[in-house]
Known about the structure:
By secondary structure, this protein is α/β, with parallel strands linked by helices. It has a domain at 1-70 and 196-243: Rossmann fold. 35% of the residues lie in helices and 25% in strands.
Amino acid sequence: MPILSTQKLVKSFGGVHAVDHVDLAFHGGKITALVGPNGSGKTTFINTVTGILPMDGGEIHVGGVVMRRMNPADVAAYGITRTFQNARLIQQISVLDNILVVLTERNVWGALFERHTALHLEKAGNILKKVGLWEKRNENAENLSYGQRKLLEIARAVSMRANIYLFDEPFAGLFPETIEVISDILRTLRDKAASVVLVEHNMNLVRELADYCYVLDGGKVIAEGTPDYVLKQPQVIEAYLGK
């Protein structure tokens, strides 16, 4: 049974189906890639599944629960966490506090004033060392470079201890060393039986990391299977190259 799936999921803008009756299934212990040309519906799909955009039809199934509406405030309770194309951090607090907010209270003010135990600090330290940000722990998030901000957002997502991780273009614009750090994190999550959903344009990374792949175009699924299989399909080549 998949951890997360959708049935006939629809999201429309002005009568245009950005997500057009989409059936997808994501399993634990797998990295599943969502690929497709720009505007194919990948990010809209993730935004709809996580409640940022209201769904206009269909169902979301999480852990046996069927939903026709997802509230963003309830996403964490269903074991789902995500990243964004543009990192969404708490800019005016330190790198360390950005992690402690997630490890303690879900409420920002509650987390900042909660008494942090040695366990909280140890966990936060381990996560920051894993992504190479320990030396930046006392810097405010707003002072980080683009790549460091990406790493901190991924560190925050990992801190959620979720079952389903949705990564929206986590590798975009990064140096090879940072790409390798994030790749290792995704593999570790898979090894811990989490379901990892990866939106990515770099087909070499998709081939390297993904166990399964869905290709979207015009809001519809046009191919699915292993990366090597789907990337050879004529309809996929046409979607990308327009031939």
